Amino acid sequence: MFYQFKEFIPVVHETAYVHPQAVVTGNVIIGKQVYIGPGAAIRGDWGGIIIDDGCNVQENCTIHMFPGITVHLKEAAHVGHGAIIHGAMIGKNCLIGMNAVIMDNVVLGDECIVGALSFIKAATIFEPRSLIAGNPAQRIKEVSNEMIEWKTAGTSLYMQLATDMHSHAIPCQPLRQIPANRPSQPAIYQQWEDVKKKL
Length: 199
What we know:
Pfam families: Hexapep (PF00132). This is Gamma carbonic anhydrase family protein. It contains two helices and 20 strands. By secondary structure, the protein is α/β, with parallel strands linked by helices. Strands 1, 2, 4, 6, 8, 9, 11, 12, 14, 15, 17 and 18 form a twelve-stranded parallel β-sheet that branches. Strands 3-5-7-10-13-16-19-20 form an eight-stranded mixed β-sheet. A hairpin with a 2-residue loop joins β19 (130-134) and β20. It is globular, with a radius of gyration of 17 Å. The model has no long low-confidence stretch (mean pLDDT 97).
């Protein structure tokens, strides 16, 4: 659902997909091939939110800010299920793990990876390619080229999902029985632990 707030109406590129059960309010700009999952709350009432091309904001994420602040997700930022971003700047090609909390005035440099359930306290700045985890979160080490390749491949799946949802997501009634010819789904992506074993 989209809501105008005062003079601000959300702007969404036609190639982006915003799930009907997400809520986008006010001063929000969503770029090309962005995926916004169901339950996401993107609330640009007190400040702006810019979500650049190729980003994804998955199910039940919250993006908000203190008054007068602009949240910026730069190109290909990847925000995992249930994460909260409050008044932060997320660099290009970053990965925010599931249920992580990114507080006000945080700046993540490009290609950072934030572990699931991490808490980044306000006004923390991380240099590019930082692997970040913990509560409070700290830089653990530098993100490797292999990790970035894995992350980038995962984000490309969400960019394709934005396109696929426009073409293939159809409201329907559930079946009452499993059909005999129900297809299987291919494993098109590997978990990082499986990738590491091959390195």
